[in-house]
Amino acid sequence: MGKMDKPTNLYDRHRNKRAQAKKERAKAGRANSNEDEQGILTWRDFEYPEAGDSNVGIISEVRGGISIVLLDEKMVECKLDRKIPFALFRELVVGDKVHVESRGGEAWIVGRVPRASYLARMRGDSTRFSAHATEEQVVAVNIDVAAIVASSDRPAFHSGLIDRYLISCENGCVRPIICLNKADLTDTRDPILRWYQDQLGITVIETSAETGQGLETLSACLRGRIAVLVGNSGVGKSSIINRLMPGLSLAAKTVSERSGEGRHTTTASNLYPLEGGTLLIDTPGIRNLAITDIPRSGLKTYFPEFAPFERACKFNNCLHDHEPQCGVKNGVESGEISRQRYESYLRMLKNLND
Q1: pTM score, whole prediction
Q2: Hey, how many other C-beta atoms are within 10 angstroms of the C-beta on 149?
Q3: 141 shares its domain with 68
Q4: Which is it for strands 279-282 and 226-231: parallel, antiparallel or unpaired?
């Protein structure tokens, strides 16, 4: 568990290569971009690195015109400094590290530390994560690890949503783990979970917020990190946090008897400090996570298990869909590539534009 930061598997090697390329493109874009019109201030004008003597806190909650900031182990209400355009307040999200000054008995945010990572929902998902996140519909930032929470039953296990979250994690340079909650409800396990763990090297932890199963393992996996829980509505994210942080008593409603789907209880992202230096972010659940801002030709790069088989494709631009003599489709037929993952890829590909 403690070696999560060392790239030792297919997913890590693939993710690190993509992350480096993304950073280089972003750096080049900042050097050549003309999108900041003259006279219009952006957060780039107020971003400063975190120095040893800086009074830096982490945003725990954003509401109204106030940010709740975890500063020196205390929750402090902070206003935005008057020199910063108030329009930029809407771009602050949970996990942002901010520079804070105390003046006149009040705390003021005077700058932001550049973001190291982020998790965002893709365009096309109509679920509201945060009323204050306007850039890329960001859920949370500066995250070390995202626990993608699914349930063994009620609501039913949905691997397609996990695949979409894996893409969101890769886009934002966030390490994923998979948490199968409500493990006490059934002994049945989807074979794809073994594929995620054995073939992609993604940690899979079985938990039960009801019985406490696996929660110590999950806690150890998150210890000392900034972590976020994401997943479908009703999978038990808030219930897990209640068990990890007794006395918090977050609202956790039951799953709908008629539809078998979860109901939204968390309506905005919030950060909670746990023992061992862990900062845990709870996010609103969703029922659909659309992937619509990736070109069709680029989707296959988010499925690293395809790469070894692409050399056998007849066409260099093969999408592994309808093309003849496709190495990836042959890999699916031989069982070397998960059919479930391949079908998830095809569903996403169908909804993408060139």
Answers
A1: 0.82
A2: 28
A3: no
A4: parallel
Which CATH number characterizes residue 150's domain? 3.40.50.300
User: Could you give the 3-state DSSP secondary structure of residue 74?
Assistant: strand
Domain-ending residue, one of 71, 95, 112: 112
CA 87 to centroid of chain Cα atoms: 25
Q: Give the structural domain span for 223.
A: 118-282
pLDDT in tens, 52-95: 667 999 999 998 889 999 999 999 999 999 999 999 999 999 99
Contact 193, 150 (CB under 8 A): no
> Does 21 map to a domain?
no
Please check whether residues 133 and 249 belong to one and the same domain: yes
**Tell me, what DSSP letter sits at residue 43?**
G
DSSP string, 88-157: GGGG--TT-EEEEEEETTEEEEEEEPPPS-EEEPPTT----S-TT--STTEEEES-SEEEEEEESTTTTP
The CA R_g of the chain, rounded to the nearest whole Å, is 21
